[in-house]
Amino acid sequence: MTIKLGSLLYKSLNYLVNILSHGQKTPLLPEPLYLLGTSFFPQVNVELIIRDLSDQTIYLWRDDELGNLGWHLPGGIIRPNESIDQRINKVILNELPFLASDQLQTNPTLLGLSEVFSKTKPSIRSHHISLIYLCVFNIKFTYSHFGNYPPHRFTHFKYWSNYKVPDNLISNHKRYIPLLKMPCTQLKKIYFPIITSKN
Length: 199
Known about the structure:
Elements: H1 2-21, H2 31-37, E1 43-51, E2 57-63, E3 69-72, E4 75-77, H3 84-95, E5 109-117, E6 127-136, H4 143-146, E7 157-160, H5 177-180, H6 184-187, E8 192-198
Parallel strand pairs: 1-6, 5-8
Antiparallel strand pairs: 1-4, 2-3, 2-7, 5-6
C-alpha cells in the first residue's frame, strides 16, 4: 500500500509540475512557492568575477528585499534542467547586457566553491552553495558600454581597476575579497577549496 501511495503522490506531483511549467523544459515556480522551497533546500548558484583585458572588475549595485545593499558580483541560481554554462550565459545576458558571450577570451574558469548558511535556523534563501567562476572578456571596459543597456533591474554598473574592492561590497561577497585582489594570471593557476561562511 505504501508503494502504491508513494507512486500516486509522485505522479500527482509530476502532473502539477507539468501544469506549472506550461510545457517548458525548465519549470518556473510561482514566486511564493519558490521562496518557500528555499527554506527547505540549499540553492546552487554561480558567482562571476568579470574582468577585461586590463584586469578591471565589474560590480553591480544591489538593493533588494533581503537587505542586500551595496556592490556585488553578477550571479544567478541554476535552474532545473539547466547546465552551468547555460546559467553563466544567462547571467551575462540578463545582468550585463552590454557584453556578449562571444567576447569571452576563454571558457569561464572555475576558481572554487563557497557555502553560506544561517547559523540559527533555516529561513528564506538562507543556504547557498556557490560556484565561483572567472570570466575574462576581450575588451577594455569603459563607461560608454554601460549607457547602452535596456531597462534593467540593476540601475548602476561600475568597474574597479588595480584590484581595488569597493568599500560597500555586500556582506555575502566579502569572502571573495582575496580572489578579487588577485590578477587574472594568478587566479587561473589556483583552485580555492570550499569557503564556508555562516550568517
